[in-house]
Write a structure and sequence with these properties.
The complex is a heterodimer of chains A (257) and B (277).
Chain A: E1 2-12, E2 15-25, E3 30-34, H1 41-48, E4 56-62, E5 73-76, H2 88-93, H3 103-116, H4 132-145, E6 150-154, H5 162-178, E7 182-186, H6 190-196, E8 199-203, E9 210-215, H7 226-256
Parallel strand pairs in A: 3-7, 3-8, 5-6, 6-7
Antiparallel strand pairs in A: 1-2, 1-4, 8-9
Chain B: H1 37-55, H2 66-79, H3 81-113, H4 115-128, H5 137-144, H6 149-173, H7 176-184, H8 189-227, H9 232-241, H10 245-273
Helix pairs in contact in B: 2-10, 3-4, 3-6, 3-8, 3-9, 5-6, 6-8, 7-8, 8-9, 8-10, 9-10
Classes of the chains: A alpha/beta (257), B mainly alpha (277).
């Protein structure tokens, strides 16, 4: 199942946020979206995931999703969006409650998702009892439980400290390598984009337009090796040069707003 | 190999001047409550009150002593008069509160969830909420007769508006990201209401219960003072008319005990339902 951004434009009131954004995410592909602050990255993700209707253009799907997928387009949120009154296991089970799964199948799906995110020992904990990293793991477990075809990740690590971020990034690399699941990964962190993505869509500052689409030359599975850094670091620098001037302008714009 | 710094450096270093501790400036602004202080203060106040009544020439008609009030309460209890009044008032409060709360929750959710209900409902609630509901009692008597119905309706009205406001404020305060999360999993509307909005609005709804419990108590006493033959409000008014101040104070003690009991009950409910906070 491919996801297509088809000439998407959007505005909030008089503010143009996105302008004619088009690209395709092939099945199983990991695409990062980077760009300066306020360039409409998160808005674009909401549109692609069907949570926001664009003013022009559309998000469309090509091909059938995998038959076992209960929610082909599944979000992982920046603020985790866990139900604070539910335990970790209940949060993971929440999207399965209205599915076609039996109680036994639901339990198996929850157990599997918790095991894959190393949360099995925390199933009875409430979100307030968990660290930020564990909360996001619970958010990821909930996403995995519905067997998504494409994860829509909206800056999933930006609310976490740098050490936790590094640990979760390793988890993402592992989880995305496990199956045929693809992902759109919105981030302002270029290192994360370069570590995770097959391709990187660079947006301009507001209104966001596609400035460039860059392929990462090293296969995802080999990026942990020291030798891969030789290729990844220059790419990261190249991306930074692409957006640096606009990031400065965007920062000034935000401060004057 | 990492180049490590010397971690055994003397805290005083090599300075020749004598080190002085940094002055602590972070005291205050964190009032702690002592478990027994409040009760001790209350007991002390009662003791002073009793002493003033027993030792000083204070007319017991104007200020009966705590012992006299306790005696009056005891006599009312064993004679059965107390239960008669209290049970009637409790019945009115329960009926009025239940009616007002149930309808307030339904209307509050409608205002919180539906655009049409919101557009219409908020103007009505804003216009009618500030009216002292006791002022409507004569009209309600005219409409509903002189029985229990107008008293229950007055309490229900008072409870309804406060409940409606606390419910729709609670629905409004449910974090939008949780609703978006549920929508992103295609969770049906009814499940979102039951599993996301209801628990999310519950803190505000329970806080509203505290207010409506005291509204109900205030209105039952007022309604009974205006037109009733039994009830704690009637009892207090009659005691005042007959200058039986010990009985009057006994009635006030019962009202206070009722308020405390309801407050405690709601605290227990909060501890049970909102343990996740």
């Amino acid at each position: 199942m491919d996801l297509i951004a088809d000439h998407i434009s959007h505005r909030f009131g008089t503010l143009d946020v996105l302008d004619d954004v088009s690209f395709t995410v092939a099945a199983g592909e990991v695409v990062a979206i980077v760009g300066p602050s306020g360039c409409g990255k998160s808005t674009l993700l909401s549109i692609l995931g069907g949570l926001l209707q664009p003013c022009a253009g559309q998000a469309s799907l090509r091909g059938a999703p995998p038959s076992e997928s209960l929610n082909p387009l599944t979000f992982v949120f920046q603020d985790f969006a866990l139900l604070p009154w539910s335990t970790v296991a209940e949060n993971v089970e929440f999207p399965l409650l209205h599915s076609r799964l039996s109680a036994q199948e639901r339990r198996a799906a929850v157990d599997d998702a918790l095991r894959r995110t190393h949360l099995s020992d925390f199933r009875a904990a409430y979100p307030k009892q968990l660290s930020g990293g564990m909360r996001q793991r619970a958010g990821i477990a909930r996403a995995l439980a519905v067997r998504p075809a494409l994860l829509l990740m909206d800056e999933p690590l930006s609310a976490l400290d740098s050490q936790t971020r590094e640990l979760l990034l390793e988890d993402f690399v592992r989880l995305l390598a496990e199956g045929s699941m693809g992902a759109i990964y919105v981030t302002h962190n270029l290192e994360e984009a370069v570590r995770l993505a097959d391709r990187i869509v660079v947006l301009s500052r507001r209104p966001g337009r596609v400035r460039d689409v860059v392929s990462v030359p090293v296969p995802r599975g080999e990026r942990g090796a020291l030798a891969a850094r030789e290729h990844l670091l220059p790419l990261q620098n190249e991306l930074w040069h692409l957006i640096r001037a606009e990031a400065i302008d965007a920062e000034r714009e935000v401060q004057h707003a | 190999m990492l180049d490590r710094a010397d971690v055994t450096e003397s805290p005083a270093g090599d300075a020749t001047e004598v080190a002085r501790p940094v002055r602590f400036r972070g005291a205050g602004f964190t009032p702690a409550t002592s478990r027994h202080a409040g009760w001790l203060a209350l007991a002390a106040a009662l003791a002073v009150w009793q002493a003033a009544g027993s030792l000083a020439p204070v007319n017991p008609l104007f200020l009966p002593t705590p012992v006299a009030i306790a005696r009056a309460l005891y006599q009312l209890a064993i004679s059965g008069v107390l239960w008669q009044h209290v049970s009637v008032s409790l019945l009115r409060i329960s009926a009025g509160w239940a009616l007002g709360t149930a309808s307030g929750i339904v209307v509050g959710f409608a205002i919180g969830l539906s655009r049409i209900a919101r557009s219409i409902g908020i103007s009505f609630v804003s216009a009618l909420f500030p009216i002292p509901k006791i002022a409507v009692l004569p009209l309600l008597i005219l409409w509903l007769g002189i029985g229990e119905a107008p008293k229950v309706a007055t309490i229900a009205l008072g409870v309804f508006f406060s409940t409606t406001i606390s419910v729709y404020s609670g629905v409004d305060a449910v974090p939008r990201n949780l609703i978006r999360m549920a929508q992103s999993f295609d969770v049906p509307f009814a499940t979102i209401v039951r599993r996301v909005i209801w628990p999310g609005a519950l803190p505000s709804i329970l806080a509203g219960f505290r207010i409506t419990a005291s509204v109900a108590l205030m209105l039952v006493v007022s309604a009974e003072m205006i037109g009733a033959e039994t009830g704690i409000g009637t009892f207090v008014l009659q005691a005042g008319n007959l200058m039986q101040t010990d009985q009057l104070m006994a009635g006030i003690v019962i009202l206070s005990a009722f308020g405390l009991a309801v407050g405690k009950l709601i605290s227990l409910l909060e501890a049970r339902l909102l343990h996740w906070r």
